[in-house]
Amino acid sequence: MEFGAFLKRKRLEMNISAREMCRLIDVSNGYMSQVENGKIETPRRELLLKIMDVLHIEPSELEPFGFQFRENEDIQSEHTKIQRSRVQGLIEKELAICSEAELEAILTLIREFPELYKMLSNKEQYTRAKEMIGEFKTFMEFMEFKRKQSS
User: Fold this and answer.
1) Which of 38, 44, 55, 123 shows the greatest Cβ crowding within 10 Å of its Cβ?
2) 97-118, pLDDT tens digit by residue?
3) In what residue span(s) does the HTH cro/C1-type domain sit (predicted)?
4) Is 47 exposed, middle or buried (0-12, 13-18, 19+ CB in 10 A)?
5) Longest Cα pair distance anywhere in the chain, in angstroms?
6) How distant, in Å, are the alpha carbons of 15, 22, 37, 120 from that of 12?
7) Based on the number of CB atoms within 10 Å of its own CB, is 28 exposed (0-12), middle (13-18) or buried (19 or more)?
8) pLDDT tens digits for 44-62?
9) Are 27 and 47 in contact (CB under 8 A)?
10) Does residue 56 contact residue 14 with C-beta atoms inside 8 Å?
């Protein structure tokens, strides 16, 4: 089996559409099609790491295709950098629409609940952390409303 066919099989096993895969790894549909169809044999290292992350591919699974990695530590470190970058982008988008009071509330929340901060840094737990912040934001809005009513 060729590398591109292997990637396509892994993608389909995970029920990820070609379009969604391209969005997740930030490449064009045409580029991904060329990789899966063997027209591009070796994607650049950063892209390969993103693909491995999305498709949950272990380094040992890539050895038959001639890919060699120094140590798992190197890969985990690079995976972590990619995940942090992705999470930071998501957080920055959310924070851009927050008011000063909401930002202060989020800072308080993170200071008071360090486990929430850890959740924000974890790709799998990011959605739940975001929901918790939304709930906290709603609570803060309610408290602000109550405060204004009593004034």
Assistant:
1) 55
2) 877 877 887 777 767 666 666 6
3) 7-62
4) middle
5) 72
6) 5, 13, 14, 29
7) exposed
8) 888 888 888 888 888 888 8
9) yes
10) yes
